[in-house]
From TrEMBL:
<dbReference type="InterPro" id="IPR006016">
    <property type="entry name" value="UspA"/>
</dbReference>
<dbReference type="InterPro" id="IPR006015">
    <property type="entry name" value="Universal_stress_UspA"/>
</dbReference>
<dbReference type="InterPro" id="IPR014729">
    <property type="entry name" value="Rossmann-like_a/b/a_fold"/>
</dbReference>
<comment type="similarity">
    <text>Belongs to the universal stress protein A family.</text>
</comment>
<protein>
    <submittedName>
        <fullName>Universal stress protein</fullName>
    </submittedName>
</protein>
<dbReference type="Pfam" id="PF00582">
    <property type="entry name" value="Usp"/>
</dbReference>
<feature type="domain" description="UspA">
    <location>
        <begin position="4"/>
        <end position="136"/>
    </location>
</feature>
<feature type="domain" description="UspA">
    <location>
        <begin position="150"/>
        <end position="287"/>
    </location>
</feature>
Amino acid sequence: MPGIITVGLDGTDPALAAADWAADEAERRGASLRLVHAWKWGPVDVVHGADRAVEEDWVRRALSEARARVAETHPDLHVTTEVLDGDPVPSLVAEASRSEVLALGSRGYGTLTGYLVGSVSLHVLRQANGPVVMVREPARPAARPGPAEVVVGIEDPGRDGGAVLRFAFEAAAGRGVPLRAVHAWSLPASVGWSPASLYVADQANDLEQVEKAALGDVLKPWREAYPQVEVVEHCEFGSASEVLLSSGDRAELVVVGRRDHGEGMRRLGSVTHAVLHHATTPVAVVPHD
C-alpha cells in the first residue's frame, strides 16, 4: 500500500510552496498526496466575512486551487483533499501520525518582522509523532553552488540515530545525492576557569579525533544499510547551529532531530529553532526513537 505525504494548507504562499515540495516528494516515493485545511468556524476568527458559508467556500476554493496547481506539474499523482473540522494544531498532529511526512509552509526569518515560523507550526513541530518538513517559499530555490546534498545534524553521536538517520539516508538515496552528516563539538565547560584549562585546550586535537571517531561509529551501520549513498562526515569545532547552517549551502534538505524529555515534555532545542528560522532550504524535524 503506497504511503501518504500530507500538506497542511492555510491559504498562504508558503503553504503552496509546501504543496509543491510535497508533490515532488510523493512522486519520488511513489506515495499519494493529501491536501488538508484544518478549519474551525467561529465569528471571532472570521477574516473573510461573518458568514460560515462564505468562509467555508473560501477554504474549499483554496484546496481546489492547490490541487489544480499540483496537477499541472504532477498530472499522474494521486491527490486527495479534505477540510478538517477542528482546531489546526490537534488536527495537523493527527495527520502527522497517519502520514509518512507532514509538510507545512514557513515564512522563516525576516530582519524586520522577526521570527515568523508561526505558533501553529511550532506547536505541531513539538507534538507530532512523525517527521514534519517546513518549506520556505519558493520550494524549488535557485541552483546552489556545487553538487546538491542532504544534510543531517547529529548532536550527540552516542545517542542520536534511529529515526533521524533513517529519514536522512532515505532522503539522500531517493534523491541520488550525497549525505553530509554534521556534528559540531566544543571544549568542556570547565575550560576557561579550571587550572587545567590550558592543558585541556592543548588536547583539543585529541578531542577532535575522539569526536570524529564517535561520528564514524554511529554512521557505520547506516553506511552498510545504504551502500548507494555517498556519506560526507563533517565534524567541526564551533557553535552547533552556526556549523549546521553554514553546512547547508548546497542542501536540498536539512534534517534535524527532536528529543522528548520525559513525562510528556516535548520541545524544540535551540539548534533546531535556529535552523528552522534561518535556513533557506526545507527543514525536516524528526522525533528521535
